[in-house]
Automatic annotation (TrEMBL):
Residues 6-376 form the FAD dependent oxidoreductase domain. Keywords: Oxidoreductase. It comes from Streptomyces aureus. The keyword Methyltransferase does not apply. InterPro entries: FAD-dep_OxRdtase, FAD/NAD-bd_sf. Its EC number is 1.-.-.-. The keyword Transferase does not apply. PANTHER family: FAD-DEPENDENT OXIDOREDUCTASE DOMAIN-CONTAINING PROTEIN 1, SARCOSINE DEHYDROGENASE-RELATED. GO terms for molecular function: oxidoreductase activity. This is NAD(P)/FAD-dependent oxidoreductase.
Length: 399
């Protein structure tokens, strides 16, 4: 046994990097491992939206689904406050701007949904209000005249997904964490002091070897690999994988200061600090699978032309000026949600000292997930009620 740590964090996406940084800052001996490179997967492929309102996917199935999704609002509020101070705490900028987010509506049904949603969100403490068309003429004149109302949340905004996690990883290293890339957790064995973890590693010259470390606590921050990684600890961690489409335009003088989402369509867009417009919102791509149907996350997933076109149509319908701006690139990213749209956050049942977080908008919620995980690994209870996000809830329901 060569290395002993207080905590091993598995996964170098934004969530793993934040957890490693927070735990190292608190004085823990931290190891962060990633089977590939830091920020190579969802955290570096996503839209960088910081959305604290309920998203379209959470309200499209009706009011009851929205009420359930709203149970994650304490995590949203926590994350909103943490994003506001994160660049200062990390010590370098990564494009955080909380200049407000609009969820727009085009018809009476959508306006009714926005009003219901705003009331629900306010009941959980989120600052959100419904603007009518005359207010939108002042606040967001770039919106199509077809938009009749919007919910405005002043806390919403964006961060640059290409650089956020690497900046946090650097801060973690500066705080004393060890980072091992091309280091895949493939086995775990329970010992009195925690876990012996087998890491399969590939050196820069391509040589493969196995390295064993001991950690008192383990954090699973493995995104779409969470279910697979759970099996290493004999744990059932159900997640639903999604392959999603993103498109970026060429640069255009800044005219969209807000994060824009739609109350009746899959659309989320924003203008980045580099002046491109990032368009997404949940349009599907083709998730590659092995012959037996198992998702093959390490393969290249495929764009679906109809999704790119549908996403572009929704964007132009909402902001007509986008019609004149060329799209320059589309890509596929993969991510997870849980079957009930709430995240999985907490202790892994049957695996003492192992904790997990994933599901949904784990870029936006990365800071609050990481804060909760850092409290749990150091033996404290979370100040957020974790019962709705219990990773064991699906097994308990089916029993
Ligand atoms: C197209 C798209 C757009 C999105 N837009 C947004 C958005 O605007 N806002 C938002 O909040 N969310 C968005 N999301 C969701 C968000 O990107 C993810 O929820 C978030 O990035 C997950 O971060 P993570 O750190 O948990 O996982 P990841 O970034 O996926 O990192 C997991 C890491 O674990 C590593 N790993 C896995 N298994 C092992 C193992 N056995 N050993 C070692 N390492 C391992 C992987 O290599 C990977 O680097 C979007 C997702 C997609 C796909």
């Amino acid at each position: 046994m060569s290395d002993h740590y207080d905590v091993a964090v598995v996964g170098g996406g934004l969530l793993g990097c934040l957890t490693a940084w927070m735990a190292a800052r608190d004085g823990a001996r931290v190891l962060l491992v990633d089977k590939d490179q830091v920020n190579q997967h969802a955290s570096g492929q996503n839209a960088g939206s910081l959305h604290f309102q309920l998203e379209y996917r959470m309200v499209e199935s009706g009011e009851e689904a929205a009420r359930v999704a709203a149970e994650a609002m304490p995590l949203h509020l926590d994350a909103a406050a943490m994003w506001a101070r994160m660049e200062d705490e990390i010590g370098e900028p990564f494009g955080v701007r909380q200049t407000g987010g609009l969820m727009v509506a085009e018809n009476a049904d959508q306006v009714g949904m926005l009003e219901f949603k705003a009331e629900l969100e306010r009941s959980w403490g989120l600052d959100v209000r419904t603007l009518d068309r005359s207010e939108l003429d002042v606040v967001a004149p770039y919106l199509s005249p077809a938009i009749v109302a919007a919910n405005l949340s002043p806390l919403e905004g964006k961060a640059d997904a290409r650089i956020a996690a690497p900046a946090v990883a650097r801060a973690a290293v500066a705080a004393g964490a060890t980072v091992r890339t091309r280091s895949q957790l493939v086995g775990a064995h329970r010992v009195p002091a925690g876990w012996d973890l087998s890491l399969q590693e590939t050196s820069a010259t391509g040589e493969e070897g196995t390295h064993t470390v001991r950690a008192a606590a383990v954090v699973l921050a493995a995104g779409v690999w969470t279910t697979e990684l759970g099996r290493v600890f004999d744990a059932d961690l159900p997640t639903v994988p999604l392959a999603l489409t993103m498109t970026v335009t060429s640069k255009v003088p800044r005219f969209i200061p807000h994060l824009v989402q739609h109350a009746g369509a899959r659309l989320s867009l924003k203008q980045s600090l580099d002046s491109t417009v990032l368009i997404g919102g949940g349009w599907p791509a083709r998730l590659m699978r092995d012959a037996d149907g198992t998702p093959a996350f390490d393969r290249k997933h495929q764009l679906i032309p109809q999704s790119i076109a549908g996403n572009a149509r929704a964007a132009v319908k909402t902001i007509p000026a986008l019609d004149r701006i060329p799209a320059v690139r589309s890509w596929v990213g993969t991510t997870t949600v849980a079957p009930d749209q709430l995240p999985l956050v907490g202790a892994v049942k049957g695996a003492p000292g192992v904790f997990v977080a994933t599901g949904g908008s784990a870029f936006t919620l990365g800071p609050s997930f990481a804060r909760v995980l850092t409290a749990l690994i150091s033996g404290h209870s979370s100040d957020v009620d974790l019962a709705p996000y219990d990773p064991a809830r699906f097994a308990e329901r089916s029993a």
